């Protein structure tokens, strides 16, 4: 039986909000979730640190992306390759106003609705990218047939789906591919009976595609490198 969010994940969401507030940032983005992971004292934090993703390094990159946020910064870098100046095009000083109401995809009662309810009326608000990656991590936990939604599920989705987090990792010279591989080793799909394992492996592609589609629909962004997500589900 699925039991919802682990207590440490709840703490992490509040830690991300507190980090954004303390830094004076106008929204909680996916980069603040990554920063909160480094402060969690968990095995995820250890893996990030092994690769150079320390709290100090990530905090510096998070601040460099403010006030627009890492997602908008990643968009700007991508468009600059095409000769498009995003800031000039939109004529706005920061990307906070680029946030839009999240598309209302059906979600599980214990999932994103809970996060939205917890953060309702609190400033800074939870950004669309943070909402989308939270929901994706919840669906990853369910697709792996796990009993709890935990910090490692958030880490696995952040490093595979979110372009803003990819920008942060590039900024601090972290090899994303190696990081994803080590996270997969450290947090494999749980050992289960042969019937459940077979069902998970047979359905992993459909579930992976569903997670990616929902993320794209909510954020309007192409995932950073989503192919590894299928392996995280199948085990």
Key phrases:
Double Clp-N motif, 235 residues, single chain, 13 helices, mainly alpha
Q: What features would you describe in this structure?
A:
It contains 13 helices and no strands. The chain has 235 residues and is an all-alpha fold. The protein has one domain: Clp, N-terminal domain (Double Clp-N motif, Orthogonal Bundle). Helix 3 (43-50) runs antiparallel to helix 11 (176-186). It is globular and about 55 Å long. The protein starts with 6 loop residues before the first helix and ends with a helix.
Short précis:
The chain is mainly α. It has helices at residues 7-22, 30-38, 43-50, 55-65, 70-81, 86-90, 112-119, 128-143, 151-161, 163-171, 176-186, 194-219, 227-234.
How is this fold's topology laid out?
Elements: H1 7-22, H2 30-38, H3 43-50, H4 55-65, H5 70-81, H6 86-90, H7 112-119, H8 128-143, H9 151-161, H10 163-171, H11 176-186, H12 194-219, H13 227-234
- Number of strand elements: 0
The oligomeric state is: single chain
Residue-averaged pLDDT, rounded?
Answer: 82
Q: In one word, what is the shape?
A: globular
Named CATH architecture: Orthogonal Bundle
Helix content: 55-70%
The major pleated sheet works out as: none
The N- to C-terminal Cα distance equals 20 Å
Computed structural class = mainly alpha
CATH topology heading: Double Clp-N motif
* CATH classification, class level: Mainly Alpha
Instruction: Please state the CA-atom Rg, rounded to the nearest Å.
Output: 17 Å
Number of helices: 13
Number of domains: 1
Question: At the fourth CATH level, what is the homologous superfamily?
Answer: Clp, N-terminal domain
Taken as a percent bin, the fraction of beta residues is: under 5%
Low-confidence stretches: 106-112
Strand/helix succession = HHHHHHHHHHHHH
